[in-house]
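Let us begin with a simple case.
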Amino acid sequence: MDPQKLWAEKYAARFAEERQKEESRREQAFLDLPHVVCGEPLRAMTPRDLLLLNGVNSPFVCPIEPKPEDVLVFFWLLHVENDKTQSWRTLRKRDKMIRRLAPQPYETLVGSCMNYVEEIFMDAGTNGSGGNSERRPLGTCFLAPLIINIALETSWSQQDILGTPLPRLFQYMKAIRARKDGKEFVDHSPSDLLTSEFLKELSCPVVAA
């Protein structure tokens, strides 16, 4: 098939849609807008949140199978109504959140948490920013290079960086790499998978029987 026709008929609309989603997520990181997950408003994950989730072996950032209690811990740790106190008002808000989540299918809750993490790590990349091929966090081994690179470029304190949303930090790192690498810089975004799929289809055309 002609490459232009193949792209127009099969990939163009999907690519444009994915690009639009990516840009919307990147803008969201700078506007401090919550991520609505299963109807609940969650903050964008920060390095500090990631350390806490690793500390409790959350299956959404560690390679283990999730349990129902893991879902509730994940939602509450990142919930915008969690002010990190044990006041009766805060505990009542937590209990109301649990009651809202309880009727929802367990598989939906787990899948939505996984999708949230995927969105947070969309710009983590695989080179220089600490992400791996599955875009899964790697605890302190993952965070140390990110923190030191941001600190060297900005003179921000460690506490400032630990409290900054990860999607924003990943975009800063991408800008730093682009400046340093110049023409050698290669950007990796989820929409690039569609481009790879398109090129693969071009190179391996279906042979008629």
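The second case is a distinct protein. As before, the sequence precedes its structure tokens.
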Amino acid sequence: MDWLLLFGLVSLLVIGAIASFYLHAFVTRTRKEFRATQPDLRITNMSAMKSGNVLTIFPELENVGGGVAYDCLLHIGGWEGNFAVKKVYPRGPRYQKHVASIVLGPEAPIRVKPIANGYIRLRYLDRWGQNYDCWYQVTQVGTGETTLYNVQIDLEHPQLNEPHPSFREMRKFLRTIPLYD
């Protein structure tokens, strides 16, 4: 009787270890598949042009992730306006970089008065409608010749707000919506 109980316990432990190994592999593969289909939109390059009192900033948007980014919106605090793109594709046949044009004239609030917390906000959605935000810090720099401020944008340290769905939601997303449009 004791040998039979010991054999049952050992069998249960072996079956449990094998099941946990396969469950872990399944969860890891699902998370990897989900991560591979998420967009990762970033400002990868920035150029500026100054003509008189008008400062024009040209941020270059690029999708460095694996999925398509939808309803992209770029907004800078202290600028009246925004730049919108319907779809930004990842590297592949439909890939292209998008260059926004932000014209900051002498009457733009970010150039006239000091702003405590300047930012550039990049908002976009993935194929499942989950919201992503990427914030870049903007610093105002005074110029000696005029009372207008120039702007410096920190592209190295963006603050990211990404969704963190549960494993069940990831699995549901991957099963309900086709991966390729």
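The mean pLDDT is 87. Helices lie at 2-36, 109-112, 167-176.
Keep these points in mind for the review questions at the end of the chapter.
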